[in-house]
Write a structure and sequence with these properties.
CATH superfamily of the largest domain: MFS general substrate transporter like domains
Order of helices and strands: HHHHHHHHHHHHHHHHH
Number of helices: 17
Strand content: under 5%
Structural class: mainly alpha
Protein name: Major facilitator transporter
InterPro entries: MFS, MFS_dom, MFS_trans_sf
Keywords: Membrane, Transmembrane, Transmembrane helix
CATH architecture of the largest domain: Up-down Bundle
Number of domains: 2
Organism: Caballeronia calidae
Pfam families: MFS_1
Amino acid sequence: MKSMRIDQNVLRLSMAQAFAGANSAVVYATGAIIGNELAPSPSLATMPISIFVAGMAMATIPAGIIARRYGRRVAFMTGNACGVAVGLLAAAGILLASFWLFCVGMLFGGAYAAIVLTFRFAVADCVPLEKRARALSTVMVGGVLAGVLGPQLANITMNLWPPHAFAVTYIAAAVVAALSAVVLRGVKFSFHTPEVVTGGRTLSEILCQPRLLTAMLSGMVSYMMMNFLMTSAPLAMDLCGITRAASNMGIQWHIVAMYAPSFFTGRLISRFGAPRIVLSGLAFIALAAFAGLSGLDVAHFWTSLILLGIGWNFGFLGSSALVLECHSPEERTRVQSVNDFVVFGSLVIGSFASGGLLSTHGWVAVCIVAFFPVATAALAIALLPAWRVRGAQSA
């Protein structure tokens, strides 16, 4: 009976990940297009996406505080409320032709996305220690469905309310967020006493761990470089004369590549250890940059985007598994929220820097810049055994 409950919890979190991820996919698929139509200046066309990313960073610490004080269920329901809000506010912004109202909606969308990404940590509260890595990757499998559901939702609904393109799309996204809330209500988390919730080391003591700092750096680089290259790729393809249809197909395969490896990433982490999987992810990201440098044909861009998705999966899930090794149960929400704040905060830098670098120096420069953070994170992972030996000697 207990194993059935565990399986049901993981399944529900995976389904909720799919519904909620579709909400984010809608934003990425339509945000810049709508921004271009509503913005007072063409230079502000991508601002809705940047505000979405900023919302992710801003929400991580408050989400952790809510989860710590009131439990993960309350945090998740808060996230779903933000998901409904982004749909309704964005739809209102489209109907009223208000660029700034649409941007406010994107801020709520970023908050929703940030809380959704904590599902990967929340599943650790539902399974035994030895099953955490597999459960974590199983939850992320929901992203495969999200990558299909989000774009299809946009395609089916974008012209249902002429002349307000995508208004119905965001109303549908609000409905999907509500469905995610229904699914999440059935998740059973382990019970924690007040002593467990309020105990643990201070944050400064926790952050002195080289292993945790390395995990945070690896997660930051994996996510930031994925966002950095992916944001530039569609515009780079457009500048190279590649059709929009081919560009969209490349992004779709990129999203599939981001989440499809989750079917086996957890097993790989359990077998080979999180540091090796992180290194593999960083290697795939480096290969993605090499592919981008090797040519400007459709095949080169698609290959780069697919390798980039796989690299993100290994790097992000591997670093998340490392974070789970660096805190006790009573410290989990504090550590996880700080980790996500660092990771998602880096996306703001990548989001704003990517387009500017592409417009001034071109796609080749974007690919070259990606090597430096990847090399730094790989070096930190390689030094982990030495840090462990030094820590054992000092103890």
